[in-house]
Amino acid sequence: MARVSGVKRRRAERIRAILEANQSETDADGIRPASVNPDGIPVTGGVTGDRVSVHGSVSGGRASAPRPAALPQDRAERDPETEWKQRSREWLAASGRGRAPGLIDGEEPRQRGGMIRSLMVRLAVAAVLFAAVWGLFRLDEPWASAPQRLIARALTEDMDTRAAAEWYQRTFTGSPAFIPIFGQEGERTEVGPGLPVAAPVASGEIVRSFAETLAGIEIAGKPGSIVTAAETGRVTHVTGGENEGYSVVIRHAGKRMTVYGRMKSVFVAPDDWVEAGDRIGVLPETEDGSRSLLYFAVRVDGKYVDPADVVPLD
Questions:
Q1: DSSP-based three-state secondary structure for 258
Q2: Which residue stretches does the UniProt record annotate as biased composition, category Basic and acidic residues (predicted)?
Q3: What whole-number distance in Å separates Cα of residue 91 and Cα of residue 85?
Q4: Can you give the pLDDT at residue 281?
Q5: Which residue segment(s) compose the domain that 177 sits in?
Q6: 15 C-beta neighbours (distance < 10 Å), count
C-alpha cells in the first residue's frame, strides 16, 4: 500500500512540475490557465489513471499543446478575406464615405447594374435619333430640305474653329497645344504649278453644296450664261441632248477630271483641247426667268472631291 501511495505521490509531483512549467510558458504569452486545487490539479480537469485533463492531456509524461481557442486573437490564424473586408471598411471610413446606407456591418454592397442601365439608355436614344434622321431623309417635302442640308453639312464639313482660336489667342496669348487643329490650315487639292484656273460660270452662286450630293455642286447663273473650262485639258466625253441637257467631261493633269452638266448647247467635241476660260457650253433659258443651274463636279484619281477646294467659285 505504501508503495502504491509513493507511486501516486511521485506521479502527482511530476504532474505538478509539468503544470508549473506550462503555467510559466502561458504567463509569458499572456494566457492564464484554469484555476487549480491545492494539489496543483486544474479544477476543470481530473486525474484518471495516468491521464490528466489540462486544457489538453498529459499521457506518458508528455503534455499536449493548449487548445487553439485558448490562444489570443493575434496568435490565431486569421481569415484573409475577413481581414481585407475589415481593412476596406477602415479605408472607406477614413476617406469619409463610410459604408453604404442600409447595409449591415460586414455585408458587402450589391452591384446595381448602373453601367448596363446607362448603356441601354444611350443605345435607345441613339436608335431613336437614327430612326428620326433616316425618316427625315426619306421625305421629299420642301420643308425637309433645310434640316437635310444642315445635317449633311454637320456630318461632312469640318467645324470652323477660327473664331474659337482667335478668342483663345486674345484671352490666353497663344493657341492651345493640346488642340492640334488650332493653328493649322485646311488641306487643299493643288493644281499643276503655274496653270491658270477659272470659275465655270461668271457671277455664279452655289445653291447645292458638295456636302449634300457628295458627288458635285449646283451653280446658279443667269440664263444663257457661257460655261467655261475650269482648267487646261482635253475633252474626253460629250453626252446628252437638248431635252435632258448636254454634259462635258474634261481630263486635266494630275489624274484630275471636271464634269459640266445640264447645258443647253456645247461648243466642243471629244478630243478637243481647251484652255482655262475657253467656252464649252451655254446655260439653258428658263420659262419664268429664274436662274439656270449648272452641275459641276471634280474627280481626282477616280474619287469625287469638293470643287470649292480646287476651283475658285466666288
A1: strand
A2: 74-89
A3: 10
A4: 94
A5: 119-186
A6: 20
